[in-house]
């Protein structure tokens, strides 16, 4: 996923800044369930919500908590789009969650769903060929 122009602008400003202090809410998009679980493990007293968008029906899981110390003073949230992770979504206890509906979950339920994910090897296992010996190598 490529950052938007606004995100790129902010990233540049952060690199040239000595310190960051956010007064307000902060939302981060994560790419996989393990990152979401990591956020939930680090945040104090996290709330986990699963929800579907009213109009599109897209599926999301988020972990959020209030944060009252530097560098962020506000609500911190990490959001995972489950459209790319349907197996993870299906492993959560969300029977027939409809668009516009939100359901509370626990970090434990996230971890159990992650543990239930199948680990599938690549379609074919191939052993890479060793590099050719160079003429300069001496045995």
Overview of this protein structure:
With about 140 residues, the protein is α/β, with parallel strands linked by helices. It contains four helices and six strands; from the N terminus they run H-E-E-H-E-E-E-H-E-H. It has a domain at about 20-115. Strands 1, 2, 3, 4, 5 and 6 form a six-stranded mixed beta sheet that branches. The longest helix has 11 residues, at about 5-15. The protein is extended. The mean pLDDT is about 85.
Q: Helix content range of the residues, please?
A: 25-40%
The biggest sheet, with number of strands, parallel, antiparallel or mixed sense and barrel status, is:
6 strands, mixed
Strand content: 25-35%
Task: Please identify the oligomeric state.
Answer: single chain
Count helical runs: 4
Structural class: alpha/beta
N-to-C order of helices and strands: HEEHEEEHEH
Number of strands: 6
Question: pLDDT average, as an integer?
Answer: 87
Q: First CA to last CA: what distance?
A: 47 Å
- Runs with pLDDT <50, length 5+? none
Q: Work out the radius of gyration.
A: 21 Å
Q: Could you say which overall geometry the principal axes of the C-alpha atoms support? A: extended
